[in-house]
């Protein structure tokens, strides 16, 4: 007879997250393109965009090759939007599973975040290989650890926002619409195609509150110190922002999760 | 024994809070196979979900030292894009089943899905889905099974099999059953709880409970 073992909390979470992981992968890559779409789509976009922008304004932006400029702008921003949406949706998707008392919404969040994080890392690595092998671009960042940190922080912001809007949408359905509304301008205000110094100084205070823009600019500076960092950009602001969002997301989660799945 | 302490459960609605239970205290005795009787909307399924930990009360606690199944209704936790086998493994992993391979083959034998066991569940009929869901639950050893009208699905042959399985279960473990079919209740249960107006009453004698239930 199959016996349900008593497990320690850690083993229980490991089992649940592993089970959810397989399940979410299955529902994420269902069409014929499958996993390859994850790589093909950003590659096409980045090649096209860097080609177009290259035609308009030369082949590099303040010492950064156009392809790398897009790799550290457009790519993290679309990955940010995607991760935010996926993490936020995961709670609703897994809602029938909360019938099993072992499965909690945090497990859905964690699983979705791990999948997003890993697939983003894989895409980034493949794009770097493409850049080195086929485009002959030298990718040797001056501060690789800095780039990793800032890219990770963009992802963390997405996960924490995802927890907030995903939980909120359980109570007020319209929150997911507000989430889409907030996401739409992200591509234009987060430095995906431009740098902050392309904008007039008067608008800097309005744009620089955005942690994604901060992280994008910082990661470009970490790639090449020639890249000019305007005064509105500050790593301290970014780190504080991430910590603050983490605090908000976890507090809301602790207060709301039981109510959220009991409705 | 399942102890219900100061349980309050309500749902928000446009007419204000709808209370299902208000400050309920009750002990559900063990070593009984209990039928949970009540009219539609009395809160049977809500009580089930609360006991199983699928939902949480607004106030109060439910304590038990027994292992409880999840509330087995038609297709809890079955993912349409995964195959039957993958779904079984998923449920096994969530519940911490010690031997997944053995569990898998047991469910396969019980649910009698043939080759379809390795096809995505979306190609199953609704009867086949409930066979799978029911099989997943009864093939794990629990102290108490929470069954929500799950034996009234499937074809005649499967029903017989499911009933036989539940009768065996009701001997070695305990069953709490929600059903409106009296024949089924008489088959598995020896006592009953009547749920009416947010209060629970335990009846040691099933027939006495059924008589009162008919009056409601």
From TrEMBL, chain A:
Subcellular location: Cell inner membrane
Keyword Transmembrane in record: yes
Pfam families per the UniProt record, alphabetical: ABC2_membrane
Ranges in a coiled coil: none
Keyword set includes Nucleotidyltransferase: no
Top-level taxon of the source organism: Bacteria
Protein name in the entry: Vi polysaccharide export inner-membrane protein VexB
UniProt source species: Thalassotalea eurytherma
Gene this chain is encoded by: vexB
Automatic annotation (TrEMBL), chain B:
Superkingdom, natural source: Bacteria
InterPro entries per UniProt: AAA+_ATPase (IPR003593), ABC_transporter-like_ATP-bd (IPR003439), ABC_transporter-like_CS (IPR017871), ABC_transpr_TagH-like (IPR015860), Bact_Polysacc_Export_ATP-bd (IPR050683), P-loop_NTPase (IPR027417)
UniProt keyword Coiled coil, yes or no: no
Keywords on record: ATP-binding, Nucleotide-binding, Transport
Database matches in PROSITE patterns: ABC_TRANSPORTER_1, ABC_TRANSPORTER_2
Pfam families per the UniProt record, alphabetical: ABC_tran (PF00005)
Family: Belongs to the ABC transporter superfamily.
Matches recorded under PANTHER family: TEICHOIC ACIDS EXPORT ATP-BINDING PROTEIN TAGH
Name of the protein in its database record: ABC transporter ATP-binding protein
Taxonomic lineage from the root: Bacteria, Pseudomonadati, Pseudomonadota, Gammaproteobacteria, Alteromonadales
